[in-house]
């Protein structure tokens, strides 16, 4: 039985990856940071499975910035594969927490790589790199495109990308970068734009009158479906040689077009319900990210099948179902759209 350690297991991708690996028969270990409230909503269902997954999924407390704890866990778990997904992953928030984002989304990767190197653990390592690293480079972006990061988040991830490559080249580690373009799902964090939109379309279609406050609607993103993207992560670690891959659909929508698909799906015109709030604008914006997934198709046999329009519809349907069973109080909907700058 293969053993995997997932950092960021409570996040969108970590939860889908844990499912995928358990389905494949892995023993899965996840790093979870302590919080004053429960953070395991996305993986609780894995514990409700009465069969053997209960004994094959283990969570360990730890913070990704705590090198000693990472070393201890790597020795204890001795994973065959490490999927490093933990990060401060919000681009807008990274402008408010630049140094913190550098620690969590950048330097923590070095702590993990170094712990693996010092222990001499013969594991395979996946780094969650991002299309944000391309920043100001015009589309289509591929593995050889220049990295021109335009946010503290993207700068931190670019550092981690290069450290991963350096440890591969310098120490012969099987360490790879998955350069993933935006990927979404009903489990997407509520402050990312697609989920803000799908939740708003659902609640407004059910009668809520509170508008949706957004920033820049002109940004263009290559949006794919998260469960398909975690399959690509796994394939990268099964490849004969370590290498870096762009994972994307190859086509894109603007935020405005995504709004059209989401609100149109429930018979609404988004223009009646969306307001601009400058707090959601970014000091430096990334205008257009559209990936070229050709290498992943050739080498890994991986292709995206769900595009932005279908994604908008499936996310709205999921939020409609959720809102019907547990309608959010109006006040909390308003507070969560107005309180901070996402
Ligand atoms: P999420 O924001 O949903 O999840 C982030 C995870 O990191 C959560 O489990 C979070 O824990 C954990 N985390 C944050 N800080 C710490 C810390 N200090 N110590 C331990 N754990 C921590 O991100 P996604 O699932 O969407 O993305 C996964 C990874 O892929 C991230 O690294 C992201 O930057 C990267 N990425 C994502 C893309 C996307 O479109 N989704 C595209 C390209 C890259 P908690 O639940 O407690 O907050
Ligand atoms: P992104 O995703 O920055 O691409 O990073 P996000 O959904 O936050 O923004 C996408 C685009 O929408 C614009 N936008 C808004 N964004 C948010 N969050 N809130 C708003 O109100 C809003 N209005 C407009 C943004 O300006 C941006 O252009 C995501 C994260 O998952 C990263 O971790 C990951 O690396 C990249 O995708 C690829």
UniProtKB/TrEMBL annotation:
Record key words, sorted: Lyase, NADP
Classification via CDD domains: GDP_MD_SDR_e
Cofactor: NADP(+)
Residues of the active site: 158
Entry keyword Lyase: yes
Domain NAD(P)-binding, chain residue ranges per copy: 5-315
The family this protein is said to belong to: Belongs to the NAD(P)-dependent epimerase/dehydratase family. GDP-mannose 4,6-dehydratase subfamily.
Protein name in the entry: GDP-mannose 4,6-dehydratase
Protein source organism: Actinokineospora guangxiensis
Annotated gene: gmd
